[in-house]
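Quick question: what would this complex look like in 3D?
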Amino acid sequence: MYTLMVADDHPLFREAIGAVIASGLPDSLLLEADSLEGALLKAEEHEEVDLVLLDLGLPDAEGLSGLKQIRERRPDLPVAILSADQDRRTILDALDLGAVGYITKSTPRRDLLAALTRILEGQLYLPPDIMRRPPAEVQRQTPIDEDVRRRLSELTIKQLEVLIRLTHGASNKVIARELDIAETTVKTHVSAILRKLGVTGRVQAILAAGSADLDALLTERHELSR
Amino acid sequence: MYTLMVADDHPLFREAIGAVIASGLPDSLLLEADSLEGALLKAEEHEEVDLVLLDLGLPDAEGLSGLKQIRERRPDLPVAILSADQDRRTILDALDLGAVGYITKSTPRRDLLAALTRILEGQLYLPPDIMRRPPAEVQRQTPIDEDVRRRLSELTIKQLEVLIRLTHGASNKVIARELDIAETTVKTHVSAILRKLGVTGRVQAILAAGSADLDALLTERHELSR
DNA sequence: GACGCCCTCCTCCTTCGGTAGGAGGCGAGA
DNA sequence: TCTCGCCTCCTACCGAAGGAGGAGGGCGTC
């Protein structure tokens, strides 16, 4: 005997889910809501909600923001996402926010029931087909910053030191003070950095350095020159 | 009949895993490696490896870097993590890199076997106890950028548009062209942004905006004024 | 010793970024 | 209607950023 809630603004879809649950999980209580607010209200009334099935297209909660709101206001509430979105990234982000499952709307009825029972039993459910077809991302990502990495590796130690401070938003003057060198010297370094990174301004340099771990690069460089 | 490989530098542990597999998955072939390089070499020899169980404490691959390397060099190879690390973040990152499962070393033998078969059947396995006890993170994270969020919400629509372009590294001139307004107007907007964000230069503004989803904020704002 | 690389600093100059202050137009709401 | 906030644009001024070009010193290699 479970209490479930489906939060979806499409009545027909709620109905379909209801039918699946009625057939596969008899004597379950199914609550319905067509908005995030409605879902949270209903959840107040019924203390013992075992699972919320949350659509990602709710009118008052676009995308994962709805999940985030629920997690902030009712961290005790188990939430599974029910969405047409099959993007791997979305699924991971949902997990990140604490979702206990992710069910795509294209899931066949039989699998859907299996997924629900899995989740209700305290397991986790994710679309295996998507999660098992891992990311082109790994390949896609590396060649992009492969170029940056190569350029970064051409920087000298001092230039790296300057670049690190650039990424912290420091002005030439501040950098000069911190490194105890003249501002003109800082300018020289900055110019060299811009040239080597192939960009036209400090802002671009910061964006190019992006998420690279410059501190790691720096210590690595220090060790090399040891 | 599966072919599995366990990559762990602790022989005793490999032995234990071997015993579990022998008892629960008879006539499986178990390969062993004590380093990342060794694992990749062995994987070359045996084309039909169904699953690699990767420890996160390998001497030549600290943490998730080993997983990353495998994914880059052999994206076809299904890898599950086998680690003592029970950190939620680590698990999510592993998934992110394309792991097909995550098994903690504290998993009892019975559950371990269930997890392995699940993975070998093409499902996904994650430690339910950890994943179902979701993050204090949601609360921890928000107060940090609560301040930034408040400041960002004070920006007007046009100011947001300008800020978005600032974060792309655009100069005032470029922004002026893109928005089809005079550069002096852009300057006015930029000044207002700096004042409202409480920073002293465009670089600082970009860093302050940081990871905030400005585009989302913008559409949100548009909808509000509708 | 000569060469190359790096770090340091300088001057001169241009462009960019940012502030201050003012001003007109426009739409929403009291 | 009048007010208020927002967007638009302007002038004037000044400091920051960056390019060009030169120059000296330290350090390691051939």
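Answer marked as accepted. Residues 137-153 of chain B form the longest helix (17 residues).
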